[in-house]
Design goal:
There is one protein chain. The chain is an alpha/beta fold and 383 residues long. It folds into two domains: 30-77 and 100-163 and 289-349, D-Maltodextrin-Binding Protein, domain 2 (3-Layer(aba) Sandwich), CATH 3.40.190; 165-287 and 363-381, 3-Layer(aba) Sandwich (D-Maltodextrin-Binding Protein, domain 2). 33% of the residues lie in helices and 18% in strands. The protein has helices spanning 3-6, 41-50, 65-75, 91-95, 111-116, 136-139, 172-175, 203-213, 229-239, 250-254, 264-271, 303-312, 315-325, 345-348, 352-357, 366-380; strands spanning 19-20, 28-35, 55-62, 103-107, 120-121, 143-144, 155-156, 159-171, 197-199, 240-243, 259-263, 277-280, 287-296, 359-360. The strands form two sheets. Strands 1, 2, 3, 4, 5, 8, 9, 10, 11, 12, 13 and 14 form a twelve-stranded mixed β-sheet that branches. α2 (41-50) links the parallel β2 (28-35) and β3 (55-62). α8 (203-213) crosses α16 and α9 (229-239) packs across α16 (366-380). The longest helix is centred in the C-terminal third of the chain and has 15 residues, at 366-380. The radius of gyration is 22 Å and the shape is globular. InterPro entries: Sperm_putr-bd. One of its GO terms (molecular function) is polyamine binding. Keywords: Coiled coil, Periplasm, Signal, Transport. It comes from Sphaerospermopsis reniformis. This is Family 1 extracellular solute-binding protein.
Length: 383
């Protein structure tokens, strides 16, 4: 797994501690495990004020998406302490009770596995008022069959609340000697960038950007049908200094590389700190990632879960999430250029034309996945 698919985004205001209401007798509880940094704390407090009934709110920040996925797995495993045997006689263990959360943050990349392993349950969209008005761009990736594959007629398994892109980030000072600035994926093949680029160590991302350059989809099932693909990959490999998905930005800052391909939630925090860096969304379109709300399997359906999703999708709240966590929102808002610092405007002010050209990286068949992995390995081993 790689940084976007394994680690948290670091941008924005974070929920820095558990936010818990006072315990009262017969009081219901609403528990959410949320990716740290993805929801501002005061948004949680605003939601709490809208709830009329007595509820004990517990929002628990978790550092890594991977940990959230593992927590979903743990909840579905039988508790060894409850098995027949001597441990049943220990009072403390008898009184232990695992409480699942009502909602959990999950990255879109993990959705197929969560469904396939029966870790989550479908959402009740009839209780989510804004679902019907949500742009189909954000509805389609979360409609899946019971194996986690995309199905336009499938159940709705998640609700996206923020998203970002795979972007090109470059050192403006190093490129000012040339009469061009990066605009699209094709610029990665320019001779001036030979051995000056870092790419993500991820077959779907790298082969996907080459497919995009060729006018194809990130989700192309049969790579053998793309006649120019291997040649393009071989040439691109000559441009690459190294492949990495965690420390790819440090060499760019130091000047060892001049350009990198990375995830927006890694890149955005650096743009204000290092004015020499600039980032763009490639004109041919790019990959999209999203953070989602999912409901663990076995948890009773709660009106509060639907109310929370609705709350996050209110335009004014979605705007706050965007501005404070420096990510995009699936909801149409009235965000103006003046709301966002200049270095981030081309990344956070949604360009509808680019959005239409961009895609989620969706699950492929096992055979197709093997094609991507084999071709990527061959690319990196090409001299």
């Amino acid at each position: 797994m790689d940084r976007r698919f394994f680690l948290l985004g670091t941008s924005g205001m974070i929920v820095s501690q558990m936010l818990i209401g006072c315990n009262r007798e017969n009081e219901s509880q609403f528990k959410v495990q949320v990716l740290k940094g993805s929801i501002p704390g005061h948004v949680v407090n605003q939601f709490r004020k809208t709830v009329q009934s007595e509820v004990n709110f517990k929002f628990v920040p978790v550092n890594q998406i991977y940990d959230l996925f593992k927590q979903l797995q743990t909840w579905q495993q039988p508790d060894a302490n409850n098995k027949e045997g001597w441990s049943r006689l220990i009072p403390f263990r008898q009184n232990q009770k695992v409480t699942k959360s009502d909602l959990v943050t999950l990255g879109d990349y993990w959705l197929k596995a969560a469904i396939e392993q029966k870790l989550i349950q479908p959402l009740e969209t009839e209780k989510i008022k804004q679902w019907s008005t949500l742009n189909p761009k954000w509805q389609q990736p979360v409609k899946r069959d019971d194996q986690g594959n995309i199905d336009p007629q499938g159940k709705v398994w998640a609700a996206p609340y923020r998203w970002g892109n795979t972007v090109i980030v470059y050192n403006r000072e190093k490129l000012q000697q040339f009469d061009w600035q990066p605009q699209d994926w094709s610029d990665l093949w320019r001779s001036e960038l030979r051995s000056r680029i870092s790419l993500l160590n991820h077959p779907r991302e790298v082969i996907g950007l080459v497919l995009k350059k060729l006018g194809k989809s990130y989700n192309t099932e049969n790579l053998a049908e793309i006649s120019d693909l291997e040649t393009e990959l071989k040439t691109l490999n000559q441009q690459v200094k190294f492949y990495d998905s965690t420390t790819y930005l440090e060499p760019l800052i130091m000047g060892d590389t001049w350009l990198a391909v990375g995830w927006s939630n890694d890149v955005i925090p650096l743009l204000s700190r290092y004015p020499k860096l600039n980032a763009i969304i490639p004109q041919s379109g790019t990959a999209i990632w999203a953070d989602l709300w999912v409901k663990p399997a076995g948890v009773e359906q709660s009106n509060l879960s639907s109310e929370w999703i609705n709350f996050c999708w209110q335009p004014n709240i979605a705007k706050e999430i965007t501005i404070l966590t420096k990510t995009n929102t699936p909801i149409t808002t009235n965000i103006a250029a003046s709301d966002i610092s200049q270095p981030l405007q081309n990344l956070l002010l949604t360009n509808q034309e680019l959005l239409e050209k961009s895609e989620f990286i969706l699950p492929l068949s096992a055979a197709a996945t093997q094609q991507y992995e084999s071709l990527f390995k061959k690319m990196k081993n090409t001299g």
